[in-house]
UniProtKB/TrEMBL annotation:
This is RimJ/RimL family protein N-acetyltransferase. Residues 11-170 form the N-acetyltransferase domain. It holds the Pfam family Acetyltransf_3. One of its GO terms (molecular function) is acyltransferase activity, transferring groups other than amino-acyl groups. The keyword Oxidoreductase does not apply. Gene3D superfamilies: 3.40.630.30. The keyword Transferase applies. Belongs to the acetyltransferase family. RimJ subfamily. Keywords: Acyltransferase, Transferase. It comes from the Bacteria.
Length: 182
């Protein structure tokens, strides 16, 4: 589906646009935000622009499987995230990042809840999942609060800064009880 617009009490998700390249670069340039990203280097603005041009050309495809979204507060881009569908379209992976100046206000929890509800209610996926580095306690807590259970530790799941890192698999299925929102 296209275009995606998800509104919470405070934050909203909208489609990422080519014009967001500079804001995305600035967001990822914060080492606290970049720490758990899989990329090894923060993409330059031009590289991000090129990626977005290529990506935005795919978002109207009927069999869309990537949803890369901008998180906004009062119209300002304060984070990013999205959903990747499995090839079958029945399972979805969510991800998110938030500018560190906004941490600790529950905004990431609100944003993650919007993604989970989008996956289950709009995309109709049966399973929603996410992975976190075992040391990413804030994100582990966010996922627990929106209803994703910790299903196990995957050893040596990601490689960054010359080190293998363990990750936690978090999941929720459509029949699970959903925590109350708000
Ligand atoms: C993960 C992230 C989005 C969380 O943002 P946030 O603003 O802290 O999230 P919230 O305020 O909604 O909730 C954070 C929860 O984690 C808890 N928390 C934060 N730091 C913690 C820590 N070091 N140990 C344990 N719990 C922690 C908070 O207390 C809060 O839980 P509570 O409401 O029960 O008190 C933010 O840290 C981020 O963008 N990190 C970089 C990118 C990233 O890691 N993305 C996720 C990849 S899986």
């Amino acid at each position: 589906m296209h275009p995606v617009e998800l509104k919470g009490p405070r934050v909203s998700w909208r489609e990422l646009a080519v014009a967001d390249a500079q804001d995305m670069h600035d967001l990822m340039s914060d080492p606290q935000v970049f720490r758990y990203m899989s990329d090894t280097e923060v993409p330059e603005v031009a590289a991000y622009e090129a990626f977005l041009i290529e990506y935005c050309a795919t978002i109207t495809e009927p069999e869309r499987i990537r949803y890369k979204l901008a998180l906004t507060l009062d119209g300002e881009l304060i984070g990013s995230g999205g959903v990747d569908l499995s090839p079958s379209g029945r399972k979805s992976e969510i991800g998110y990042m938030l500018a560190s100046r906004h941490w600790g206000k529950g905004l990431a929890t609100e944003a993650a809840a919007l993604l989970v509800d989008f996956c289950l209610d709009t995309l109709g996926t049966h399973r929603v999942w996410a992975t976190t580095d075992v040391t990413n306690h804030a994100s582990r807590r966010v996922l627990a609060k929106v209803g994703l259970r910790e299903e196990g530790v995957m050893r040596g799941y990601s490689f960054k800064d010359d080190v293998w890192h363990d990750s936690v698999m978090h999941g929720m299925v459509a029949t699970d009880e959903r925590p109350l929102r708000g």
